Amino acid sequence: MKRLRNLLNRIPFLAERSRRRKINRWRAAYEQWKRQGGALPLPSYGKQLVLQEYAERFGTRILVETGTYTGHTVMGLLDKFDRIYSIELDPTLYRKAQQLFARYRHVQIVEGASELCLPRILSELNEPCLFWLDAHYSRGATAKGETETPIMRELEAILSHPCSRQHVLLIDDARCFTGENDYPRVATVREILLKAHPDWQLEEKEDILRAHRAAVQD
Ligand SMILES: C[S@@+](CC[C@H](N)C(=O)[O-])C[C@H]1O[C@@H](n2cnc3c(N)ncnc32)[C@H](O)[C@@H]1O
Predict the structure, then answer these.
(1) What Å distances lie between residue 203 and 65, 130, 211, CA to CA?
(2) CA 86 – ligand 1 centroid, Å
């Protein structure tokens, strides 16, 4: 059954129809979550709306995601970006995502630790990008690298990129940034970001730390 589904998904029209159906299911679940009071965490579709909002606001055409997991974010935003990079450390999750997105030439699923892969990806980029920093150990099938979260080294790589001031950073799971389990405190992350870019605006909302310059229309 699964093999048949994989085969059918190689037919562009059927793959797109299945993608639309998935997105409709996520949207319905999100609407229901809102009706029930919208307690955090945001469902995947809500996070996709946040990413889309920032991409539109800052005109970013490239998405860089760390931590692919099942590829929901990539799937939901496939047609919203010119290029998408997504990095996954777990070999099985990587392989599945790689197969899932193989026919999309503008999507690159990268296997490895984001803190090690980001510098190579960044060296290919010469325009402002939207970063969805979401790589971390989350139990279950997820991978654990040298540390539970690679965020400090991810930030180091991004902040030393020539376009860094124009990049837009969305860091998920802000609630975990307590100074425990390898996570820095939110205050430390804020300090690092503002030291690099004193004019950046930082906001923590819906469990996502958002960091960027003032948008043109702000
Ligand atoms: C919360 S999930 C990502 C969810 C996904 N971004 C989404 O929006 O649906 C975190 C993922 O990060 C992966 N991960 C953990 N440490 C990593 C690292 N150092 N580099 C890349 N991926 C990592 C885990 O295997 C897991 O799949």
Answers:
(1) 19, 16, 7
(2) 9
Q: Does residue 46's CB lie within 6 angstroms of at least one atom of ligand 1?
A: no
> Which atom from ligand 1 is nearest to the alpha carbon of 141?
25
Answer whether 47's CB lies under 8 Å from 210's CB: no
In the predicted model, is pLDDT for residue 10 greater than 70?
Answer: yes
In whole angstroms, how far apart are CA 53 and each of 6, 27, 110, 130, 132?
A: 31, 16, 25, 11, 13
- Among the listed residues 129, 126, 169, 130, the one whose alpha carbon sits nearest the alpha carbon of residue 151: 169
For 40-212, CATH gives 3.40.50.150
Whether 110 contacts 121, CB under 8 Å: yes
Question: Where in the chain are the domains?
Answer: 40-212
pLDDT confidence of 8, banded at 50, 70, 90?
confident
* For residues 129-136, average pLDDT: 98
Mean pLDDT of all residues belonging to the chain: 95
Residue nearest to atom 24 of ligand 1 (CA): 142
Quick one: which H or E segment has residue 193?
helix 186-196
Helix 151-159, helix 114-123: angle, nearest 10: 10
Q: What is the pTM of this model?
A: 0.96
Are 176 and 40 spatial neighbours (Cβ–Cβ below 8 Å)? Answer: no
